[in-house]
Amino acid sequence: MSSQLNPGAQDLLLVIDVQNDFCAGGALAVPGGDEVVAKINQLAAAFAHVLLTQDWHPPGHSSFASQHPGHSPFDTMQLAYGAQTLWPDHCVQGSHGAELHPALAIAHAELILRKGYRAEVDSYSAFYENDRHTPTGLAGYLRERGLRRLFLVGLATDYCVHYSALDARREGFEVVLLLDACRGLDSNGSLAKALSAMRAAGVEIREDAA
């Protein structure tokens, strides 16, 4: 599969949030989340450049439903920066749930980007916090490295992968989504909406990562 991609020197595999809490038995498990690990390991072997992201919330993060009495996980409420889905407590700094999946084997990954560590704002995207203004610094890192085309895989297709893809396009990068190495939550049609938005933004979506 991965050998047919033929990634070049300016290509990077961006692996989004393949963490215990998003996989089977986790606090915010994405259906089939574990299924992406073997595919991502195989893909990564073909790339000279790989970057991983890691959701990394402090205890009591503002996106946790537990911090808002009267609200439940998956409710939407207005925070200072706009509408925010409330989540079960997940990917708390230093916890088992925040660790990368133990079967993820990408020793040559060049960077692990932690996001969502500001208590007052969530961060789906690898490029911007959910206020849509505060950058993570990833765009500058990629430009300085001379990396121009990003292949996205990971969890969840309709949230962190989706927002990362849109922001990568916003920053002028070529983006390819390898759909069979992603899994989504698909809440109230969110997966179809995310795929439509990514296509409209110029993201190339490959059903098969081969």
From TrEMBL:
InterPro entries the record matches: Isochorismatase-like_dom, Isochorismatase-like_sf, Isochorismatase_Nicotinamidase
PANTHER family: LD05707P, PYRAZINAMIDASE/NICOTINAMIDASE
Family according to the record: Belongs to the isochorismatase family.
Assigned EC number: 3.5.1.19
UniProt pathway annotation: Cofactor biosynthesis; nicotinate biosynthesis; nicotinate from nicotinamide: step 1/1
Organism of this sequence: Pseudomonas aestuarii
Enzyme class (EC, first level): hydrolase
Record's keyword annotation contains Hydrolase: yes
Keyword hit for Isomerase: no
Any one Gene Ontology molecular-function term assigned to this protein's record: nicotinamidase activity
Pfam families: Isochorismatase
UniProt keyword list: Hydrolase, Metal-binding, Pyridine nucleotide biosynthesis
The encoding gene: pncA
Signal peptide span: none
Boundaries of every Isochorismatase-like domain copy: 12-205
Matching Gene3D superfamilies: Isochorismatase-like
Protein name: nicotinamidase
